[in-house]
Amino acid sequence: MAEFLKPKERMQIPKQIMPEQDPKERITNFNEVNYGFTRELAIKEAQRCLQCKTATCIDGCPVDIKIDDFITLIVEEDFLAAARKIKEDNVLPAICGRVCPQEEQCELTCVLGKKYEPVSIGRLERFVADYEMQQGIETQAVKIPKKGKKVAIVGSGPAGLSCAGDLINMGYDVTVFEALHELGGVLVYGIPEFRLPKEIVRKEINNLEKMGVQFQTDIVIGRSLTIDELMQEEGYEAVFIGVGAGLPWFMNIPGENLVGVYSANEFLTRVNLMKAYRFPEYDSPMLDLRGKNVAVMGGGNTAMDAVRISLRLGAKNAYIVYRRSEVEMPARIEEVHHAKEEGVQFLMLTTPVEMIGDEHSRLKAMKCIKMQLGEPDDSGRRRPIPIAGSEYILDVDTAVIAIGNGSNPLIHKTTPDIEVNKWGNIIVDDETMKTTKNGVFAGGDIVTGGATVILAMGAGRTAAKSIDAYLMDEGKW
Predict the structure, then answer these.
(1) How far apart are CA 335 and CA 191, in angstroms?
(2) Which of 39, 50, 193, 387 has a 20 to 30 A CA-CA distance from 425?
(3) Domain boundaries, position 212
(4) Shortest CA distance to 69 belongs to which of 347, 352, 60, 78?
């Protein structure tokens, strides 16, 4: 067992660096960029934790993981117990350890971070989750008395999976309905293989299946079945809607209908579900980017994913075109750093005003205009203002619009008594996640708009508690 150090000794330990692929090598493959902590690095990093009497890091975790407890177990070298401790509150630790923005959540509230670098909580979470998988530990179904009540989960993304995991552990019969042919929602179609391997997602979902969760794919709720049919004909006494925000936004500029212009949703889905990341074994001809110039509009994590994918698919030049400065970019610092290492070119304070096509209606260039920052807008970021006369032409063959997503109106159109706001997001009670329709709850991006995996999971957990209270009260809410 590793040594427990005094607080002053802990503060003298430098933050441990996670090993990763060399940039020149990784742009030639879709293998995971970060290798993860070794056993020795994980223990050393865990020893940095001050074990505060009041663990403020937990306040920053949307699912309330007992962070201090699982880190103590790492110091004690009981990694399997640490994994079990995390799973008391988070059914997807290997995923969250990779893609959650811990620097804005649990690590932001780490006491050590006030003077030094915060403890790498997310990387420690990934380490113990991966260790458990590598040991071949089988998830055992918990023997809980069945309540004889059925709950339907619409969508197999992070919100739906989290809700399903909690409900199955409460004794409900849970079925998850997924519109696509592969489970995982945004975890499989929206995040590239080099950040989140598909096999990791499959293993986490397999764990839920072993716990008793049922999954049905290729069922579009709102088309195959409506919410009313689930409740009135299929016998589900409560429904949770976690379908995400999958309706792409465009820029509404001339030429967006040209061949070679994609929404980020389509681009990432082609790469992930059509397996373009395994080219040439799987060939998606429209994404043969060898020798091409690719521009990605946006500054979030999705934009970083798309532009880094472009390099791996052979792009000659890969640009991020962002209308503000780097300071305002919402993407994770790590993702921006990795993109720069890999050769992505950043065109800041720039926005396209027209997509230009050739005689075959194929994209050949973008007309861009330079911007300057004015006063802050409603987001708190300085508003970009065009600079008159600064237009120029950028030669590009492929453009990806990654400026955000809206809510698919399908469920609202087929279930009008579920109210939505002006953006099409489902309206819920913030404390319970209850919608305006009795017995129906919702959470994740369909409620908040595009957000993070862990916030969606937090909403799923809140909804599970509310569904339990609702059904135990025999639907008298």
Answers:
(1) 12
(2) 193
(3) 150-246+406-472
(4) 78
